[in-house]
TrEMBL record, chains A, B:
Keywords: Decarboxylase, Lyase, Pyridoxal phosphate. Residues 476-489 have a biased composition (Pro residues). PANTHER family: CYSTEINE SULFINIC ACID DECARBOXYLASE, GLUTAMATE DECARBOXYLASE-RELATED. Its cofactor is pyridoxal 5'-phosphate. Belongs to the group II decarboxylase family. It comes from Streptomyces rubiginosohelvolus. Residues 456-525 are annotated as: Disordered. InterPro entries: PyrdxlP-dep_de-COase, PyrdxlP-dep_Trfase, PyrdxlP-dep_Trfase_major, PyrdxlP-dep_Trfase_small. SUPFAM superfamilies: PLP-dependent transferases (SSF53383). This is Pyridoxal phosphate-dependent decarboxylase family protein.
Amino acid sequence: MPTPPLAGGTAGPAALRPLLDTVLAALHDGAALRGGPLPAGGPDTVTPRTRTATHPLIPDHGTGPHHALRALVTALAAGAADPAHPHCAAHLHTPPLALAAAADLAASALNPSMDSWDQAPAASALEADLTSALATEIYPHAPSPDAVITTGGTEANQLALLLARERHGPVQTVCGANAHHSVARAAWLLGLPEPVVVPAPTGTLDLAALDDALTELHRPLLVVATAGTTDTGEIDPLDAIADLCTTHDAELHIDAAYGGPLLLSPTHRPLLHGLDRAHSVTLDLHKLGWQPASAGLLAVPEHHHLTPLHHHAPYLNADDDTEAGLPDLLGRSLRTTRRPDALKIAVTLQALGRSGLADLVDRTVATAHHLADLITKTPALDLYDRPTISTVLFRPTGADDHTVATVRRTLLQRGHAVLGRAHAEGRLWLKATLLNPHTTPQDLQTLLDLVTDTTTDLLTGPPAEPLTGSQADLPTGPPAPEATPPAPEAAPQTSPAPEAPEAAPTPAPATTHPTPHPTESDTPR
Amino acid sequence: MPTPPLAGGTAGPAALRPLLDTVLAALHDGAALRGGPLPAGGPDTVTPRTRTATHPLIPDHGTGPHHALRALVTALAAGAADPAHPHCAAHLHTPPLALAAAADLAASALNPSMDSWDQAPAASALEADLTSALATEIYPHAPSPDAVITTGGTEANQLALLLARERHGPVQTVCGANAHHSVARAAWLLGLPEPVVVPAPTGTLDLAALDDALTELHRPLLVVATAGTTDTGEIDPLDAIADLCTTHDAELHIDAAYGGPLLLSPTHRPLLHGLDRAHSVTLDLHKLGWQPASAGLLAVPEHHHLTPLHHHAPYLNADDDTEAGLPDLLGRSLRTTRRPDALKIAVTLQALGRSGLADLVDRTVATAHHLADLITKTPALDLYDRPTISTVLFRPTGADDHTVATVRRTLLQRGHAVLGRAHAEGRLWLKATLLNPHTTPQDLQTLLDLVTDTTTDLLTGPPAEPLTGSQADLPTGPPAPEATPPAPEAAPQTSPAPEAPEAAPTPAPATTHPTPHPTESDTPR
């Protein structure tokens, strides 16, 4: 086998082109094989099928680039939970824009590493400009706003706690019961005291309880507020929390991983009033920013707040090199080798502009409100509350928590929909996190029909096996040899057939596998 | 502007295709504009040029996807230090294989997130199989080898220290003076005592000194050894270190970020004898594995060693979902949202097989030995030592450290070569880290000619300004309006012209910019 070609240099693009053709064909074929938001059958079907299609992972002799790309990319696409499908709406799991994914290819091909100037001359300049521009969106009146790029909100929250620790020593974190799990995990990682958790009985941090906690606790204190909670998408009362922090001499970090991009929408920006009073802000553009993972940021109002990240490694930032004008990049992250995630973000912002991003944000929020409207009109469903951003909690009327959990798993098992789950007001709810700006009202109606039909099946179907295992989650009924993906216009399915995992075909490279008919909802617009 | 298309679903590939055409054209044009391993002129030229070409980053109204991709990707490529160029050889900064970059596009387009099964049904199965297979390469005789995917060696080393902390409490790390800077940084992050540093006067950890240290220090102890140091590419005596750890009841972590892939080469595998005696091993496939960043791993001999990473977040791994058979993925990383880096790695391993990877490893090591041979034959250059892996240290005969540092910066400033630097035996050396399997003997000879010619310029040129700043690093001489990239066959340049940064053209979208003649060394094979 000749030495395989590289992605870089002037010859790279010609080497990439035929390989990309294979990837695009495999992505298409895999999505068609899947025929819905996720493959049917659950882990018991998908795991062995994927294993068969990708075996052997480390052969003695290679199968060649086209065969390997076709086999593995087809298997990955056929077995994806694809956020571009309107019925894949469980998590803050965004459908990436095509232009952002295309830009990300250039990052892979050039492979700049952001830990020294001589590995990333232009990429480091682009990153510096981008982080400064985004930090200025968050802190428009601050003296020297700056930001560092992270792998996501989890790393950004970790850095926020680390910066507080370095400023003040062993800081006590105080957060709401609605805060992201990464806050407690960061305290554990950093050897800090476990966070004090303030109740959030209505979904947002309780101000009186926070006041009490800040009165009792010893400083140094770091309050973590959330702008867009994972469970309900609610936004803590940021301005009032900032007031309490001022009163009690506590610092404030705001986790705006989800809600941060509302800043770009003139309509929704007021929801974030008070954001710029925080000592640091987490932002994730792989959520409401339509970037492929990862695209996180931690922003601060003053550049020098990042000083504790400074670090010295003579092979990367020798003193005499720095004195001679080579930028010192090592203090921009705790990572060393680092992908230029700035590129896809910058391409997206320049291509769409504020108005284009605002349009995507506004559409997504409107979609969530439309779903809430439809739920309100459906007697068989209860709505938790109107959405703040784009998260909608609902549940089948009268169902117990076990049924709600089983409805979710049955939809997954059948390959019909990917919905999330959240506890609120002491009950379990189905969670739709809407991030797809192409989702139509018809898609939403079909999604609700799937939920109500599945609930009916579960509650009125023939006596079922105990619902304890993934297979047992399915109602009993006549076995069918093949998954039947629902069309959006499908009549309610009163007798759904459970999948027969043992009959599931291997998706790749089995080109003879019958392709399900594409339906409207299979083809994201 | 219509809502921009998504990368996923059956329609994604058709939306991606024209955008990828724009990206490939921009990558080609940017590389041609650059005309060498990196742009000439240093930060003072590259930063403003990049800024101009990418401005405005956040316009009110977007410029559209093709314009933005063309402008930003061209600027990034024109301003890259491209590891696919044979004269870009400073760091463990790999030139990615085209097939790995192509696979990475599929990861961006499908955007599986590795924190829950319902975001990554097939990707999580593929990752589980890949990490198990790679861990088995490292621990062939262990009961249940496993690995987690990281953003690189830095995160893997951090996890190694974290796992030791969770097993034993505040563990004392002991590492060589040759260990990676991330070891000390991890201890700082995790609130652990600063590492005790054992001398490594010959480039590898001194066994007698380690024995003394382990005798004196209080347990719990974690020794960190290195298989492939950053400065010289040397490998600590792993087996002897493991013996000492056994004797002194210390645990052992081996940072094989660089050297780990030698395992795949029957020729070079013996260099890693003793690797499988470590409690954990760091491996980076974005170094000697030709993956775009990032592709790190931390391997352990027994699956249950990863238990301290387990974590509970009800929206991602509710107990009843886990009991019902949905895999719990949250304990596979400290990150939450996580890109499927397993895909590109798996495609590469399957496409090339062990034999193909071994061939790349063997070629790369042979290239380093050839460079050492050429240096030995060049009277004006001194060789530090024969390479262990693919790092070669050398210096102009009789030059002082200041001159060595200035030669490196001058090569950068002129856009002629990207070489690294390392201290060894009390002196500063130029460092060539060879990772490009396409580099030819002629490329290596040209690289050495560039070094000797630049040294001659600096030592014999007209009286220069004091060499304190990036511009001042250049010898004085007649200004030239345009960079003149050297052809590989170029005669020694006795009167090089410094770049005039103010005359540098904006690379994008300036399609009228004169393209330097492509030369052999501009076109990686």
